Amino acid sequence: MMNNIITFLLVVIALLQTKLSLCDNEPLVLRYYKETCPLLEEIVHHQVEIAVLKEPRMAASLLRLHFHDCFVLGCDGSVLLDDFEGVESEKKAEPNLNSLRGYEVIDEIKYLVEEACPCIVSCADLLAIVARDAVALRGGPKWNVYLGRRDSMKASLNGANNFIPSPNSSLETLIANFQSQGLGIQELVTLSGSHTIGKAKCKSFRQRIYDYKDSMSSSDNHRTKDRVPEDSRINMSDIWKRRHIGPTRFHDPNKIRQSIFSQH
């Protein structure tokens, strides 16, 4: 069962990259930089390892950065663009502002890659490799990353506000959102599994646990309420670490699956 789950995840990730990453109808390929930047993946892996060892939560942040890039205009690195002439940065979008993180990790990797092979590797490809390595370093699956993306010279602030899923979206809204990107329900369910790792502030899910409509087991609901105050004004700075709920490592998918089905 564990192997089946991981295999399905890898298939969907490959499908996502194919659907959202085609560059001028040119297919992405493995080892795209084999001749032009042979040390690329070694450099990226080393820097991601440093970042994740320093802060385990960074793995989830880097994975999320790649997803937020892909869901707006495709996997083109547009999420990294700052305000410039004619460009309104996606960083200012509501789903990204004071939320997306890890930009400095990408900046450092890009600097080192440019030193090794100037003007060769796209930022879009870096985000894809970084996401894969971040997941693998925290015990998750490792997949082949197909490369050859081109960086966008434009961003879409409106697209980031309109397309990136909200934590409060209904199932119907999420299905429609994914369908607009050429993705189906299977991709939605599987990619939601990226939340296997990572931490979130209470405000991200307070509404769901206090507007309880049998959408989770009652025991889970009570346990979560014990750690999340209903009043958002409560000062919990002394127990800030408790407010960021969630693991920073992947666990055995069998255990997760058995836990879910044993409670329903």
UniProtKB/TrEMBL annotation:
EC number: 1.11.1.7
Site feature location: Transition state stabilizer: 64
Catalytic-site annotation from UniProt: 68 (proton acceptor)
Protein name: peroxidase
Top-rank EC class of the record's enzyme: oxidoreductase
Reactions catalysed according to its record: 2 a phenolic donor + H2O2 = 2 a phenolic radical donor + 2 H2O
Gene Ontology molecular function: heme binding; lactoperoxidase activity; metal ion binding
Sites where the protein binds Ca(2+) 2: 196
